[in-house]
Amino acid sequence: MFEIFTVDFMQNALMAGVLVSLISGIIGSLIVVNRMVFLAGGIAHTSYGGIGLAIFLGLPIFLGASIFAVAASILMAFLALKYKERVDTFIGLIWATGMAIGVILIDLTPGYNVDLMSYLFGSILAVETSDLYTMFSVFVMILIFVIFGYRNILAVSYDSEYAHIRGVNVGLFYTLILVVSSIGIVMTMKVVGLILVISMLTIPVFIAEKISNSLIGMMIVSGLISTLFTIIGLMVSYYYNLTTGATIILVSVVGMILFLTIKKIYDLFKRGTIA
C-alpha cells in the first residue's frame, strides 16, 4: 500500500503534505478562535492577484502571492479593527479586486497558457525540493511566532479586553496573527488550491476543538488530524487518478462525518440512552 511513496514525486508530495498539514493546524486554530475565517477566505482569494503579478513579472509564484496576501492581511486587519460593522463589505471588495487583478495580469502575459486547475485545486504532485525548503522555513517561522508570543496570542484570542488591560498591544498582535496566517494560507494553497484552502484550515480544527481543551492542544491535534487526512487523500488520489487537493478535502469531510457520528453514539451511550 505504501509503495507509492517510493516514487520521487510522491515522496516530495508526502513531505509537502505533512509540512502544510502542520502549518494549517497551527494557523487554522488561530483563525478559528479569532473568528477570522471570512478574513482568511478574503486573503486567499486576494492572493490570486499576486499569482498574476508573479507570472506577469516572471517572479516566483510564492513571492508574488505572499506579497499580495501580506498586504491584504494588513489592510483587512486595519479595517476589521476600525470598521467592524462594515468589514464584510470591504473584504468582499478587496477579494474581488485581487482576483480581477490576477486574471487581467495573466491575460496580459505574452504567450502564457495558464493552468488554472493548479491554482484553484492545488498542485502538490508538482512540488519540488526547493518548495519543501520554503515550506519548512514558513513552518519554523510560524512555530517561533507561536512559541514566543503564545501568552499574548492566547490573551488576544480569548479576551481582547483583558489583554488590553494587561498592556498587550491588541491591534498589533491581531495584525501579526493575520499576517502570519496569510503566509501559511499561501503555503496551504500549494496543496489544495485557492478554492479549497479554507476547508483544510477549518475541518481538522473543528474536530480538534471537540477533543482539546487548550489552544496549544488544538494546534497539535488539528495538525496531526490534517496530516492523516492528507496522507489518506494522497493515496486515494494516486490509486484512483483523482485531483489530489479535492480528494484530500473529501477525505477530510468524510473523516469529520465519521467523527461526529462516533461522538454522537458515544454521547448517547454515556447518557444511557442506548442500552
Please tell me about this protein's structure.
With 275 residues, the protein is mostly helical. Helices cover 82% and strands 0% of the residues. It has 11 helices and no strands. The chain has helices at 8-33, 37-46, 48-57, 61-82, 87-108, 116-120, 129-158, 160-165, 170-211, 215-240, 244-270. Helix 1 (8-33) crosses helix 9 and helix 7 (129-158) crosses helix 9. The relative contact order is 0.17. The model has no long low-confidence stretch (mean pLDDT 86).
Compact summary:
82% of the residues lie in helices and 0% in strands. The chain is built from eleven helices and no strands.
Characteristics:
275 residues, mainly alpha, ABC transporter involved in vitamin B12 uptake, BtuC, 11 helices, 82% helix
Layout of strands and helices, then pairs:
Elements: H1 8-33, H2 37-46, H3 48-57, H4 61-82, H5 87-108, H6 116-120, H7 129-158, H8 160-165, H9 170-211, H10 215-240, H11 244-270
Helical amount among residues, as a percent range?
A: over 70%
Q: What best-fitting shape do the alpha-carbon axes yield?
A: globular
Structural class: mainly alpha
What's the number of extended β-strand segments? 0
How many helices? The count is 11
Q: Return the CATH topology.
A: ABC transporter involved in vitamin B12 uptake, BtuC
Cα separation of the termini: 39 Å
Strand content: under 5%
Q: Give the count of structural domains.
A: 1
Second CATH tier, the architecture: Orthogonal Bundle
> Superfamily at the CATH H level?
ABC transporter involved in vitamin B12 uptake, BtuC
What is the helix/strand order? HHHHHHHHHHH
- CA radius of gyration is 19 Å
Largest sheet: none
| Average pLDDT for all residues | 86
User: In the CATH hierarchy, what is the class?
Assistant: Mainly Alpha
User: What are the segments in which pLDDT stays under 50 over at least 5 consecutive residues?
Assistant: none
